[in-house]
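worker-3 :: picked Cell division septation protein DedD
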Amino acid sequence: MTGRAGSFVALVTVAFIPLAACQTSSGSSSGPALQAPETGPIVKEVEAPEVFQMTGKGLWDGRPSLGGIWVAHYDVKDPERVIIRNISNGKSVTGALFRRERVMPGPSIQISSDAAEALGILAGQPTELSIVALRKKEIELPPPPEPAASDQSQAEPAGADAGAVPETPPVDTPAASAPTAEAPRKSSGGFFGLFRSKPKAPAAPTAGTTAPSGAIEQTPLDPVEPQSAPASAGSLARPLIQIATFTAEENANKAAEKARKAALNVRVIRVEGSARPYWRVVIGPATSIEERDAMLAKAKELGFADAYPVSS
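worker-3 :: tokens ->
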């Protein structure tokens, strides 16, 4: 009889060890892996003085002009996209550079009415200008910084062998670590009286109470927060094409009508300038780079040589 009782106690102890191991492994969970930010080249306009650069007097004759913001000079061979600076007040604007066909007396640089408005130049007043060509250039973004070392790696001793496999800590079982309560003595039944009737399962501990020694505490897992959907791959930072700017609303409407007849989605936007308002004519938006390039090529075919992508 004593041998059977010892075998029964050993069997109960052995069956309890895997249950404790399962509880220990289920309590640990790893968080979602962090994704490194995407990197890649970006296109940016930079000054190209080796293509074209000049400094000289410019003049606006006071008459309204078409074509948006531009300047013209005799030495220009091909149209260029340039940055125009008013040296006297520090204002600058991007626009087009054309060849000036007729030789006129006075300053060699002719200024459009919209360029004069943007640069703060009065009619009939010669102004010192700086003109530099622009070129698009791809700029590579720096790689993202590497993630910092985890706390576990920092806690490792400096003299530890890099090739050694860490020992797995033994799993504490209730039979080995938690002290067992002494069974109450009964007047009859002896040792086998402990196994005659099964005690009822203890009620789950409420908030503020402590679970009895040796019991397996079940902790509910934290709810998983839904992750937001990634941004659409087709979204563009600059989905619109600005084809021209005008200081006269009538000229802006004429340009918009010309683009509308070519089946382009066009808008005229009023902007309050420092001295007076001006109007921007934009087409779009595009949903892909291919569609935006096609819109830009179409705008240039219509005669808007200074068209370029914008964000709004």
